[in-house]
Structures are given as structure tokens and as C-alpha cells.
Design goal:
5 strands, five-stranded mixed sheet, alpha/beta, globular
């Protein structure tokens, strides 16, 4: 299965970074496409987007200043299938993307994504001290996967914290 395309450009307000595409995302070519994934619902309820988007509209979020990439490009059923070598390579590629595109905020969609990227352990939700790439706000949110058992309201509250760092009103 082929990796899905990143949605990147210079000057992004937020770059969302996932573990890797789901099999459903790999099949459709769209980020967060699994029917059980709550990503777009969370963005809507947190006030980050002006309305509820669908995975098929992921490219449209570039117009709002939101981009998408993953630390590993290979689609899998679960993140547990990602190898240490894939994470090592993905970490270097992701850092280069961040340096190249210079988003205002990099939102890691899952603590494990940030831990793999930064090499840090026991990270907290929200803004991270001492960013791995200087001058970039690094922000950690829960994974939106349906496998995560956190209540939707808790997830929305954590994502809502992104609005503080956007540099402008979110979703507009």
C-alpha cells in the first residue's frame, strides 16, 4: 500500500503530525480516514475549524493554514507495527519538513508520536518546554484513533489549547 500525500506549505499555522496512516487512509488517500477516528470531530468541537470537515476534505484545511504529515509514511493497522528503524528514519525526515516549512505550531497527535520524535519520555499534554526545533511551538494532543479510550470531551479540551498559540483566531 502506498503512503498518502502530505499536505504541506510554508507558513502553516498548525502542522498536525500523526504516527502513520491507517489502512483506511492508505486505501482512500486521505488523512484520518478511518470511520472510528475522531480527528475532524475533535477539531470542530474544539473550535479549530469553522465547521465539521470530512477526511475527503483534508486538502481543504490547507486554506485554513493546517497541514498534515506523519512520522512514518507506511500505512498499518496499528502503530504497534511500526519498526524502530522506521521511527529513526521518520524522525529525521519529520525534522527536515519542520525546518523547511516552518509552521507556527507542530501538533503531535499522540504522546508516542512526540516521544519517538523528540526522544523524550513522560511528556505531558499541551505545549512542550524546550522545543526540539528552536522557534517552533511543539504541542502534544491525544491520538484521535478510535482505539484510544479517552472521553471525547477530554480530548477536545486538550486540542482547544492550540487556539492560544495560533497567532490568530482559529477556524476563521
Amino acid at each position: 500500500m502506498e503512503p498518502i500525500s502530505d499536505h504541506l506549505r510554508e507558513g502553516l499555522r498548525i502542522l498536525f503530525v500523526g504516527y502513520n496512516p491507517s489502512l483506511r487512509s492508505g486505501e482512500t488517500g486521505h488523512h484520518y480516514a478511518s470511520p472510528s477516528n475522531r480527528f475532524y470531530r475533535i477539531l470542530d468541537q474544539a473550535g479549530i475549524t469553522p465547521r465539521l470537515y470530512t477526511p475527503q476534505e483534508d486538502q481543504d484545511l490547507l486554506e485554513l493554514g493546517y497541514g498534515f504529515t506523519n512520522i512514518v509514511a507506511r500505512p498499518t493497522l496499528t502503530a504497534a507495527e511500526i519498526t524502530a528503524d522506521e521511527y529513526r528514519e521518520g524522525r529525521l525526515i519529520l525534522k527536515q519538513k519542520i525546518l523547511t516549512y516552518q509552521p507556527s505550531v507542530v501538533c503531535f497527535v499522540g504522546k508516542g508520536v512526540y516521544e519517538q520524535y523528540s526522544g523524550r519520555k513522560s511528556v505531558q499534554w499541551g505545549r512542550q518546554p524546550d522545543p526540539y526545533v528552536e522557534g517552533i511551538i511543539e504541542y502534544v494532543c491525544p491520538s484521535s484513533s478510535g482505539l484510544v479510550r479517552m472521553r471525547l470531551e477530554e480530548m477536545v479540551a486538550i486540542y482547544r489549547g492550540l487556539t492560544e498559540y495560533s497567532g490568530m483566531e482559529m477556524g476563521k
